Structures are given as C-alpha cells and as structure tokens.
From TrEMBL:
<feature type="binding site">
    <location>
        <position position="143"/>
    </location>
    <ligand>
        <name>isopentenyl diphosphate</name>
    </ligand>
</feature>
<dbReference type="GO" id="GO:0046872">
    <property type="term" value="F:metal ion binding"/>
</dbReference>
<keyword id="KW-0560">Oxidoreductase</keyword>
<feature type="binding site">
    <location>
        <position position="184"/>
    </location>
    <ligand>
        <name>(2E)-4-hydroxy-3-methylbut-2-enyl diphosphate</name>
    </ligand>
</feature>
<feature type="binding site">
    <location>
        <position position="244"/>
    </location>
    <ligand>
        <name>dimethylallyl diphosphate</name>
    </ligand>
</feature>
<keyword id="KW-0004">4Fe-4S</keyword>
<feature type="binding site">
    <location>
        <position position="89"/>
    </location>
    <ligand>
        <name>isopentenyl diphosphate</name>
    </ligand>
</feature>
<feature type="active site" description="Proton donor">
    <location>
        <position position="145"/>
    </location>
</feature>
<feature type="binding site">
    <location>
        <position position="56"/>
    </location>
    <ligand>
        <name>dimethylallyl diphosphate</name>
    </ligand>
</feature>
<comment type="function">
    <text>Catalyzes the conversion of 1-hydroxy-2-methyl-2-(E)-butenyl 4-diphosphate (HMBPP) into a mixture of isopentenyl diphosphate (IPP) and dimethylallyl diphosphate (DMAPP). Acts in the terminal step of the DOXP/MEP pathway for isoprenoid precursor biosynthesis.</text>
</comment>
<feature type="binding site">
    <location>
        <position position="27"/>
    </location>
    <ligand>
        <name>[4Fe-4S] cluster</name>
    </ligand>
</feature>
<dbReference type="GO" id="GO:0051745">
    <property type="term" value="F:4-hydroxy-3-methylbut-2-enyl diphosphate reductase activity"/>
</dbReference>
<feature type="binding site">
    <location>
        <position position="242"/>
    </location>
    <ligand>
        <name>(2E)-4-hydroxy-3-methylbut-2-enyl diphosphate</name>
    </ligand>
</feature>
<feature type="binding site">
    <location>
        <position position="243"/>
    </location>
    <ligand>
        <name>isopentenyl diphosphate</name>
    </ligand>
</feature>
<dbReference type="GO" id="GO:0019288">
    <property type="term" value="P:isopentenyl diphosphate biosynthetic process, methylerythritol 4-phosphate pathway"/>
</dbReference>
<keyword id="KW-0408">Iron</keyword>
<protein>
    <recommendedName>
        <fullName>4-hydroxy-3-methylbut-2-enyl diphosphate reductase</fullName>
        <ecNumber>1.17.7.4</ecNumber>
    </recommendedName>
</protein>
Amino acid sequence: MPSQNLESSATDSRALKVLLAGPRGFCAGVDRAIRVVEEALRRYGAPVYVRHEIVHNRTVVEDLEKQGAIFVEELDEVPQDAHVVFSAHGVPKTVPLEAERRNLLYLDATCPLVSKVHREAERHFANGGENSRHILMIGHAGHPEVVGTMGQLPAGAVTLIKDADEARTVQPENPARLAFITQTTLSVDDTAEIVAILRDRFPQIEGPKREDICYATTNRQEAVKRIAPECDLVLVIGSPNSSNSQRLREVAERSGAPKALLIPKLENLEWDALDGVNVLGITAGASAPETLVQEIIEALSDRFSLNIEERIVKEEHVTFSLPAPLG
Ligand code: 0K2
Ligand code: SF4
C-alpha cells in the first residue's frame, strides 16, 4: 500500500497524527462537469446558465459564478437564446425536450457513469413491450440523480426502493419480470444488503453483477474504511447536500471511528472538536476540491505539531472527454 509521510515545522505545539485517505475528492465525472461549464464560458462568453448546482459543492459553484455562470433550478429561469448546462447528476428526459422546444442551446454534463444507468433502465424497459421488466431503483427519494434516472422512463415504470425494509415489503405486479438499478453514490454495504434481499425474494430479477455504484464512490468508501479504525475523529470535507460525502461520514463511523463530521470547509470547523483527538482522519467527497483539504491542513499545522501520513488504497486513472459540442 503506497503511503507518504510529511512532517510539519511546528515544534512546541501538541502532536497530532493526520491520516489522509486516498483516493479522496474530485472524481472524473465532477472534473468533467466543471470543465464543461468552464469551456462553455470560454467559447460562448458569460453568462452561461447551469441547471442545478453543477456538483453539490458551494465552493465550486461560487468559483464558477465568479467566472460568469448563473445557477438556476429550472429551465423556465433561463432566458431565450442562452446557453444552459445540465448538472453532473443527470436530468429527466423532459428537460432536454423542453430545452429543444424553447430552442435553448444546451450542454449535458451528466456523468457518463450516470448516463450508463439511464441506458440500463431503458434496456430493461424495452419500450414497454413484451420483453419489458418493471424496474426497482435503489436510491434516495428526491435526490436529483434519482429524479433524473427515474425520469428516463414513463411514470409507473420504476419503483423506488429506499432501504432494506422496502426491499422486504415491495409487492411487484409480476415478480418474474423485474430488474434493478441503483444510484451511483450509495453506501456499498447497505446496497449489497438490499440487493441480496431482492435477489432472494425475486430470483429471476435482472441487474448489474453487484450494483451501479461507481468506481469513485467505491474507492472513497474503501479508503475511509481503512483509516477509520485508527482515528479518534474523521473529518469529511463536503457539502451537506452531497450524497456521496454523507455516505463517507456514515462509513467512517460504522468502520470504527468514534466520531465523523461532515464539514463544507475550514470556517465550519469547530476547534473544540479536536480536543482529546490524537489521530485525525481526513477525506473529501467526490465534489470537494483538494484546496479545501489543504486549507484545513494548513490551519492544523498552525496549532499542532503534525505528522501526516497519506494512505492510498487505489490509484485512479479514469478521465472522461467533454461532450460532443465541446470535445
Ligand atoms: O453525491 P451526490 O450525488 O449528491 O453528488 P455530488 O456531491 O455533486 O458528487 C458528484 C456526483 C454526481 C453524480 O454522481
Ligand atoms: Fe460519476 Fe461517480 Fe463521480 Fe458521480 S461520483 S460524477 S457517478 S464518477
């Protein structure tokens, strides 16, 4: 397992060991989504409208706003003839249709790994013909990715399964013709339990080998699992509306950290939280920039004598090219 040791220069302050989880922070889908907005601004000039936060991170959003992006929740807030970008989480089919109807120039920053789940859903639905399967989607109610994925198909084609209890009690019309899909940013362990229940109750259910959780979600959870048992506290850098960041906080506590806190950035850190902490774990959600992690480490080094060790459980080399009009 590759690791890295860095010593801070502070000498007379209290010692603090920092375990940095790797991988952490930006994934390939987030990196691509941000590049879509930046490239659109470069090519077409400001303003460029973005439907929903491009990724769930205020720092990213505010930085793009400074460059001329305008964030809205719905297309009816976008003026005629404007350029509009759809966020990394994906959109229901009605959104591009509405953009076309209004002749808006749109760019789709949906992560290719979310689009892959959209195509899976369409394949199972098979145009509603005789090969059609009813789809159970494992995910969180109201999350934009879930709204986008369920919105690939007509109402009633997909049933949302929010937890193990719903997997145990769902009563599909035809148990022999079922399929399941999942949100990409779920807890790997919770989802495995839900999938096992569904496979047990409905042996003919079709689906991916395990689930649709993406490589980045899987690797970040694995990395925080490895450091959590050694930590007195784990800080997860990420926004409260970021599903994958919330899951990292839960995974840290379930894997042996006595406490884990989700904080958007340095100014949200209450220093009392570090009282009695000798080993501090740090990770970051897939939408949190590494600058936010480094800001925290910098502030820690002013107060403590730091011994920083990075524990990298997996190297990532995934990159996605920009969508056709920008590529
Ligand atoms: O984790 P979330 O789906 O809430 O989204 P973000 O925090 O924006 O992270 C990027 C993932 C987007 C799609 O999977
Ligand atoms: Fe894509 Fe996974 Fe990143 Fe979501 S978390 S944007 S699915 S790579």
